[in-house]
Amino acid sequence: MKVLVTSLILVFLLQTGATAREIIPFNKNWSFKKGAIPTDPVKSQNFWTNGWETVELPHTWNAKDMQVNYNKFYAGDGFYRKTFTVPDSLKNKRIYIRFEGVGQVTDLYVNNIYAGNHKGGYSAFTFDLTPMLKSGQENEILVKANNAARPDVIPVNHSLFGIYGGIYRPVSLIITEDAHIAVEDYASPGVYITQHHVSAQKADIGIKVKLRNHRSINRQIEIETAIYNREGQLQRRNVQTHTLFPQGMQTSQTQLSLSRPHLWQGRKDPYLYKVVVSLRENGRLLDRQVQPLGIRKYEIIAGKGFFLNGQKYPMYGVCRHQDWWELGSALHNEQHDFDLATIMDIGATTVRFAHYQQSDYIYSKCDSLGLIIWAEIPFVNAVTTQEKENAKEQLRELIRQSFNHPSIYVWGLHNEVYSPENYTVNLTRELHDLAKTEDPGRYTASVNGYGRMEHPVNLQADIQGMNRYFGWYEKKIQDMIPWVEGLEQNYPECKLMLTEYGADANLAHQTEYLGESLNWTKEFYPETFQTKTLEYHWGVISKHPYIIASYVWNTFDFAVPMWKRGGVPARNMKGLVTFDRKIKKDGYFWYKANWSEDPVLYITQRRLKQREKQETVVTVYSNRGIPHLYLNGQELPAPKKGYTDVHYIFEGVLLQKGINHLKATVGDLSDSIEWVFGQERKAGEAETLNNNAEHHGF
User: Fold this and answer.
1) Cα 495 from chain centroid?
2) Is 397 a catalytic residue?
3) Are 34 and 78 spatial neighbours (Cβ–Cβ below 8 Å)?
4) Which of 115, 243, 344, 387 is the most exposed place for a label (fewest CB within 10 A)?
5) What pLDDT is attached to residue 689?
């Protein structure tokens, strides 16, 4: 089956002239078929001729099975193919194809010629199609994608999250002149921006450009580097000549200084300049790249906190998995925008994008929104001793592709990987060294599920992250305090971040009977326990600046195809928002009340409508002062303060049999819910788990 490229793309191709590069979406009218090629010649012929479906990218074959089934989903080969005609007008151009993400091992064939392979499901990659294309004729591209777990490609299993199969991010064609800014440099922009001596008075900006010349002669080119402010006004400009040799990739560097720069100030003022690099030959434009520039200085001081441009900055953190209900990871920008709007609404200032490289679009949006972000590679959960080279490759891709995003402050090296310890320690050291070689200006971090700083795998990166689930996987909720105080006392000069914490919440599970821990191995995951956990934990975090940043796990529920827990197969329910993005849990409003400048008044436990205790406690979140609470029209006595200044607890509330109306007010704000008292059945009690062992991951 052959499908011609759309006429719109053909028009773009034909219009590609002598000015700079063209980037052309290449997402429509692909043919797709799932399954391995039969070895029998007759069956193989039938495979290639029958059963193909037309799809539009982004696309995944796991949007359903990986989200609803426990350990029952397709992981293997999937094939995509597409035909298009290359006009004669492009005969002297270079034509590249750029994949933004394919899950997770890719083989590419062009006109039955093997073009190459890429290992890794989350980074972008490019291939130069030029030598294999036939000008003026129909050309076929064939992609084989495979999402089966394998020991030499991270992540090495589907245990913490599913590796969605398919071409799940967009694809584009890149058309350039035969001299251009490098496209093949690990699918990076080919432009690298550094900044030094940043202050309100001055900033020194370095711009490195990688170049290619596909002719067999030297060429004299001009490289113009310019910085424009947000209003489009030129701030600095440099033009230099460069002899572009015919062999290999080459580098040019420029230094520019800005006086009294407008600093990038996080959510308060995410001001962006832009850097424009132009290549010319004899006055003719060959290529141009535009990259963001947010002028800022990050600094972490152990025991004191995170500093942005010399001022202490609150690191209110959440984590984000990219998949959506019924879409998997095959997302469009509108889904990324929704997630970021939710994160902004809650008042977060920092995001850990876990556990893999995410869309460049979402990093770009964080630049403009002022979110400070953590980007990492999927070296998670398990060690095989075969993943070293691929881990390095994915880290190099992440850094080069994301280098210019001012919102990124740290490169994550690993999450909860341990044995064999010597191998893991050495690999972490090598990853740290690689990151510092590629990008000396940013921090590195590794993450451990154990709570001991002296664990052998720890202290191999700039920042030590720890994932702690007190009351859920280990110990009791209150054990968080001795943990952090012990670290403060014994390791005052170590940079610590609480990189995951929380508890699952199935909204169908509610109870008034809660202990200080919950047996997560049982099927009962009440929302009320998650709320209790998050309230206490943030109360501790907010009082301990030793925890430089904290990241609640997770903003949204997500798919875990190897899990069967809490009454819902293939689901991690630690999100503050349900997987379908429709319901915000109580924990969401807890953080919004504590973090956001928007007014919040919220009565908790609205889904625990059927009440069994006549005398109860009502909790209200208010960031606009002490709320008034009314029960069936009668005002109740004033509340006591809880763990933070927005936490109000009304004790000794007596319900009447039947329907009870609760209304909270503060100023012009009000919130109302209904409870029903008098049910004879017991909703369920959260079973405790007496587990004193440390959580260390799965």
Assistant:
1) 22
2) no
3) yes
4) 243
5) 78
Taking 50 as the pLDDT cut, the residues of the chain under it are 1-18
Interior angle at CA 361, CA 104 and CA 101, nearest 5: 10
d(CA 650, CA 617): 6
* Burial class, 519, CB count within 10 angstroms (exposed 0-12 / middle 13-18 / buried 19+): middle
| Alpha helices in 116-162, H assignment, sequence order | none
Residue 22 pairs in a beta bridge with 175
The per-residue pLDDT for 681 is 60
pLDDT value at residue 683: 60
Which string of DSSP letters, residue by residue, matches 235-258? EEEEEEEEEE-SSS-EEEEEEEEE
Average pLDDT, the chain: 95
Local structure of residue 556 (DSSP, 8 states):
B
pLDDT in tens, 435-493: 999 999 999 999 999 999 999 999 999 999 999 999 999 999 999 999 999 999 999 99
All residues at 6 or more sequence positions from 167 whose CB lies less than 8 Å from its CB, including other chains: 30, 57, 58, 59, 80, 99, 101, 102, 143, 145
pLDDT, residue 693, reads 78
CA distance 176 to 170: 19
Catalytic residue among 22, 376, 387, 416: 416
Dist CA 522 CA 529 (whole Å):
14
